[in-house]
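Morning F.,

Quick status update on the modeling queue. The single chain you submitted on Monday has been processed. Sequence for confirmation:
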Amino acid sequence: MSQSALRLGVNVDHVATLRNARGGERPDPVRAALVAIEAGADGITAHLREDRRHIRDTDMARLKAEISKPLNFEMAATQDMQRIALATMPHAVCLVPERRMELTTEGGLDVVGQRETLAPFIARFNDAGIRTSLFIAADPAQIEMAAALKAPVIELHTGAWCDAVVEGDRTRADREWQRIVAGAKLAADVGLEVHAGHGLDYATAEIIAALPQIKELNIGYFMMGEALFVGLPETVRQMRAAMQRGRAACESRA
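Structure tokens below.
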């Protein structure tokens, strides 16, 4: 992979969502992870929620044991999740906000307001050799606090931008896009590695791939939906192709 290449992390949560709708063991999110990696994914993301609505503890253990690529463990900043993450020892943890009633992660983590809570989590994971990412909005205060707390990585929440694009709200989409552009630049300037995710599809992934500061995209829900029609390997290949088109456009302007 070239230095400028963009990594694709595939989120397998919603394979587990489908499994849990009927109970039992199928479809298996670990099998989906292995298929995604074989098709070209650079890593796997899974969110172990406090209510275990999709990924289970055994899924996380099996993912760590069975996949050959980095595991990104999404989690709330709770003592129970910290214990499980330290026992699992994934490549990375991504700290996210979590509410029991939400359908999906609705916004970015309030790093400024929760700095006293988050600081010991980040320090503990850093000491353990686990990279910590903070899932935040492209807000300057949040980005600067992430750097101050010595989190090596942030993941920019792209949901508001993607929603506006899908809804055809051009004014809001342009406003949210400019926030992402400015946020990615600021984050790189203060020494953070920049990832992005939430709501991305082929079109929006291609657009955001053109930002040179972005090093990784984490995508799940859209890809699992597409996989119902064309299969997961083809979905991974098409997503990688979209990302490569965006990155090529970036390099052509450099």
